[in-house]
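The authors assume throughout that readers already know how a fold can be written as discrete tokens. What matters is that the chain and its backbone geometry are given together, residue for residue. A single example would do more here than another paragraph of explanation. For illustration, here is how one protein appears when written out as sequence plus structure tokens.
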Amino acid sequence: MEVSGACRQFIKYRCIGSILLNDQSNDGYAGWENWNGEMRTYWGGGEGRAGYCACGITGTCVECADRCGKCNCDINTGAQEDSGYLTQQYDLPVTKLYFGDTGNPGENGFHTLGRLECFE
């Protein structure tokens, strides 16, 4: 990556009644490891801010009464999606993904992790 001008990696989580990053205790259920094995808890478009997805940065997340506003999936009801590009160069590439909050009937999550893309 040192010879490339910029790199990015697409990441997506489609949830059905499954919290992604922010629960009431702020512990979250998901995260990923960077190239150096360090845990990260921001999602695509979250600009490196822990607990944030793209919609939390742009202010376009699904509205709800509590603990929401940083990721669509944190509403914990119905089908939602959080996706975007990870662009923090010091964290790329993603080496492991972690998910939770899928243990009860009706709780599901589906992920997509794209290839590392680098540009000059």
